Amino acid sequence: MGNDLKQLIYCSDARKAMDPMALRSILDLARTRNAELGITGMLLYSNAHFIQVLEGESDVLDALYSKIANDPRHDHVRTVMSLSLKARDFPNWSMAYRAVSEADLQAHPQLNDFFSPGFDEHSFREFASPARFLLLAFRDIEGE
Ligand SMILES: Cc1cc2nc3c(=O)[nH]c(=O)nc-3n(C[C@H](O)[C@H](O)[C@H](O)COP(=O)(O)O)c2cc1C
Q1: Residue-level pLDDT at 129
Q2: Which residue in 8, 25, 31, 116 has a CA-CA distance of 20 to 30 Å to 71?
Q3: What is the pLDDT of residue 143?
Q4: Residues 69/77, Cβ–Cβ less than 8 Å
Q5: Residue 143 belongs to a domain
């Protein structure tokens, strides 16, 4: 059953703060590759922390995730959630992207937890559907 649909969320810390060009190059490649692989999702970046939601066929997703987890541009990669899906939460995004600013965090104080260094899978258990929570929380933030 290796081709079931699966969703995975991880958090990580950028090795060094990413400038817009560095983020752009991650995103451009991710979008091209993900479109080929049938991977969808969303990447959030704030203050040298990443959160990424990845969705796709389980085998494909596992292979991609092990590549991403070994990427030297970030470390302390921790899986916060992994579940099988009936339908994708991000069907139309090969990789949606939001740069989350201080102003965004102030406007959405509930998001501060997601970008704190101590955020891990235990924190995520409070949310019944973390990807949906993130999606709704970031819907109103300017993205691309
Ligand atoms: C935070 C972060 C998120 C990434 N997301 C993706 C992604 O969604 N899809 C993808 O193909 N690569 C992504 N990458 C890049 C991969 O780690 C890897 O560099 C890329 O797939 C190129 O692999 P290759 O060396 O086999 O060509 C991401 C990297 C980082 C640091």
Answers
A1: 59
A2: 116
A3: 60
A4: yes
A5: no
> Is 26 inside a domain boundary?
yes
The CB of 34 under 6 Å from ligand 1? The reply is yes
Yes or no: say if 38 and 54 are a contact pair by the CB < 8 Å rule: no
Distance from residue 29's CA to the centre of ligand 1 (Å): 7
Residue 21 CA to ligand 1 centre (angstroms): 15
Residue range(s) defining the domain that contains residue 116? 5-138
Count of domains observed in the chain: 1
Over the chain, what is the mean pLDDT? 84
Ligand 1 atom with minimal separation from the 70 CA? 17
Distance 69 CA to ligand 1 centre (A): 9
Assign 143 to helix, strand or coil: coil
Atom of ligand 1 nearest to the CA of 68: 17
Token pair of 141, please? 């933030």
Task: Assess if residue 79 is contained within a domain.
Answer: yes
Query: Does 144 map to a domain?
Result: no
Does the pTM surpass 0.85? The reply is yes
Ligand 1, closest atom to CA 73?
A: 31
> What are the pLDDT digits (tens) for 59-75?
999 999 999 999 999 99
Q: Which residues have CB under 8 Å from 106's CB, separation 6+?
A: none
